[in-house]
């Protein structure tokens, strides 16, 4: 229990120095130098795939100087942020280690101030990710009966996911969803008089048969889902490529996340199939077809009932609903209410990161069982193993104490 933990932690730490807990065998000055080195390595490792994958996706632009300039600028700035975050967190803890509420939240919070160095696109995903991790902790820890019953029932949780999924997909139809989602489509075409396609289909796919569209979509989704599941199977194993290249396919087979693959395929496949089908056969409006198809496709969640997907759906749905409301004001030619104007001007993602990054890092170290395995992995790479080391020291001290 967090409360009991903080009491025993206080007693345990009373006669200890920061050297015992944070940097065994080193003085604060020596540890500081090491924090600099780990900060640089952590940033370089963490941000490399984030910037390298998009670069590989636009091989056509490799001849342009701008492509490389953007890559180096984005990567460099993000690494600089990682260095600030790591350095502030693990140097600042020498001053705050006795005070549990501020343990890492304050030093990491100060380091998070430099989050503005990260390019906006990456910042958005990272800020939302950090926030989602914290929401997950709250759901896991909540003692409310309602949340507990949701946590335990697969049916209820899938139903809720379906509703969130519907809000996001409907947002795409209204051109209000802008975030990445597994079932996404862009409405680029205007309606025309061509009678070869159903009205709804015309908006989401080219003048090809629905069957051809489905084939095309499933192929693309499969590629994407495969790439994601493969990246997940081999994180931090780039060295394996040249050290043990033959181990790679074996690892890919054994660690490949088939459930995640099926989740992405079914969520997208069922929706696209039903949406086309209903557009052709039903007499209802495109909106209704979209809602019905996305509600049913939410059943794909059963393949991968993970918190990480659920919290992602939660924040994406809230954003979609917000943009839908915003759009309805605009389409009626009405001015936005003051609250919405203020929200639009507020750097929400920056503050989401600022307030939750420190909390997430602290939770990983003090309450490792309440944090998902992705948070463990992400923070391990980002801090170049420093977070894991600190967590081990805390556990060692706790065991010694008991
Ligand atoms: Zn120290
Ligand atoms: Zn169609």
TrEMBL record:
UniProt entry tagged with the keyword Nucleotide-binding: no
Signal peptide: none
Key words, A-Z: Membrane, Transmembrane, Transmembrane helix
Highest taxon listed in the record's lineage: Eukaryota
Annotated transmembrane regions: 39-57, 78-98, 155-173, 260-278, 290-310, 348-367
The organism of origin for this protein: Clunio marinus
Name this polypeptide is given: CLUMA_CG002776, isoform A
């Amino acid at each position: 229990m967090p409360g009991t933990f903080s009491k025993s932690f206080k007693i345990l730490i009373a006669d200890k120095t920061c050297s015992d807990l944070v940097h065994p065998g080193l003085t604060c000055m020596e540890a500081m130098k090491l924090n600099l080195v780990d900060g640089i390595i952590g940033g370089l490792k963490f941000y490399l795939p984030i910037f390298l994958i998009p670069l590989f996706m636009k091989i056509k632009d490799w001849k342009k100087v701008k492509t490389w300039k953007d890559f180096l600028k984005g990567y460099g700035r993000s690494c600089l942020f990682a260095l600030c975050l790591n350095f502030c967190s693990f140097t600042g803890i020498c001053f705050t280690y006795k005070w549990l509420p501020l343990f890492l939240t304050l030093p990491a919070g100060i380091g998070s101030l430099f989050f503005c160095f990260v390019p906006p696109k990456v910042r958005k995903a990272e800020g939302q990710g950090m926030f989602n991790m914290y929401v997950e902790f709250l759901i896991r820890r909540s003692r409310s009966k309602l949340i507990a019953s949701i946590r335990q029932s697969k049916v209820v949780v899938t139903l809720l996911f379906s509703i969130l999924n519907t809000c996001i997909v409907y947002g795409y139809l209204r051109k209000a969803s802008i975030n990445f989602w597994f079932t996404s489509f862009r409405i680029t075409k205007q309606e025309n008089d061509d009678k070869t396609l159903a009205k709804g289909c015309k908006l989401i796919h080219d003048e090809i048969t629905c069957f051809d569209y489905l084939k095309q979509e499933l192929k693309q989704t499969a590629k994407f889902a495969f790439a994601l599941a493969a990246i997940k199977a081999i994180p931090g194993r780039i060295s394996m490529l040249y050290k043990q290249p033959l181990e790679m396919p074996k690892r890919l087979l054994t660690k490949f996340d088939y459930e995640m693959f099926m989740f992405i395929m079914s969520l997208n496949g069922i929706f696209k199939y039903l949406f086309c089908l209903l557009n052709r056969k039903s007499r209802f409006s495109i909106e209704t077809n979209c809602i019905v198809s996305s509600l049913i496709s939410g059943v794909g969640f059963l393949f991968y009932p993970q918190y990480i997907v659920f919290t992602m759906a939660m924040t994406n749905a809230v954003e979609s609903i917000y943009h839908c409301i915003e759009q309805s004001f605009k389409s009626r030619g009405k001015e936005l209410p003051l609250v919405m104007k203020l929200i639009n001007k507020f750097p929400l993602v920056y503050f989401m990161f600022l307030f939750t990054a420190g909390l997430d890092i602290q939770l990983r170290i003090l309450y490792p069982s309440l944090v998902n395995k992705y948070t463990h992995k992400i923070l391990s790479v980002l801090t170049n193993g420093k977070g894991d080391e600190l967590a081990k020291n805390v556990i060692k001290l706790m065991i010694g104490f008991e």
